Amino acid sequence: QVRLVESGGGLVQAGGSLRLSCAASGRTFSEYTMGWFRQAPGTEREFVAAINWSGSNIRYADSVKGRFTISRDNAKSTGYLQMNSLKPEDTAVYYCAADSVGRRWTFKSEYGYWGQGTQVTVSS
User: Fold this and answer.
1) Which among 40, 65, 70, 124 could bridge 49 via Cys, Cβ 3.0 to 4.6 Å?
2) Who contacts 91 (Cβ-Cβ below 8 Å, separation ≥6)?
């Protein structure tokens, strides 16, 4: 069992940066793939980034490549999403997720553990 709590969201101007954190409780976090997803009003929850248990394998959505960086610190049971060069279209509720997802990293249905989400708003 893993409980996830996101933090770090807020309001930022276009071009600015935010760093999201995902604090996990439960002994198995270090064994799980961790993902970040986001959901804007009226849209489906979409994949943003994911990192495997060791940090040796990372994937990004095309829309955030080169701007966002995912990382994790298993000793602190915490994951991160550094978001730079933010755009108004990045505005959404951001969720972290974790589970043993095999190769289907970008599929939200593969993740059994979710945080409550944190709002990110980028003004133009």
Assistant:
1) 70
2) 40, 120, 121, 122
Q: CA 79 → CA 13, 43, 49, 117, 123, distances in Å?
A: 24, 25, 11, 14, 25
- Name the one residue in this structure whose structure tokens are 């959404």: 92
Q: Which two tokens stand for residue 59?
A: 């994937």
Query: 50 and 105 in contact (C-beta within 8 Å)?
Result: yes
Which ranges constitute the DSSP H helices of 3-80?
none
pLDDT tens for residues 32-58? 999 999 999 999 999 999 999 999 999
3-state class of 107 per DSSP?
coil
Amino acid at position 56, single letter: S
Strands 92-99 and 58-60: unpaired
Nearest CA to 19 among 62, 68, 52, 63? Answer: 68
User: What is the spatial distance between Cα 42 and Cα 34, in angstroms, rounded to a whole number?
Assistant: 25
